[in-house]
User: Fold this.
Amino acid sequence: MLQSIVANRQAEYNSFSRVIGVFAARWDQTEIITLGSCWRTIKSFLLGSEYRYSPVSALYLFSRPQDFALQRVRGSINERLHLRLWGTSLRLAGQTVWVGQVSRDIGVRFTWRTWNLTTHRIDSDVDEARDYVLEDLFEVGRIEAVGYVGGLEACPKNTPRFNLTGDPYYTDGRRAVVIVSEVRTVPKFIG
Assistant:
């Protein structure tokens, strides 16, 4: 029993290390929300500057917040890409299956729906943000296999859905499935 627990923990650690290793050179891990990080975020917002490690708010999946969040800055704190990842109990070839969510921030606005009264406006083309992550992984050559599966029903630009804070979004409804590689490789396309 103890050996099984240790083996599972080791597999989780190896899977986490593999995922972090794929993104580490090009994405920054975010800080946790503290008084200090909030102050640095406010300062960056007021100065219109970058803050590479600015914290992100929690999103919930499986009744828990993301296991970790990464981001890429795009000129100012108002324009970032947020990538949140949740480990699952599912395994593929002994590795943890991770579920991710990406969004591209395009501005900041006030809202009564968050504790700090502000939120980022997101780019409504959520598929473009999804495909950006794939392009990034292709560029570093760390995709072993990639494909798309059905997700939510598609919603076109003229009849968007809305997120919790009212931002519209549209999607083709497909979800990317990626098997990452620890080394550079030529990807296989799965359908």
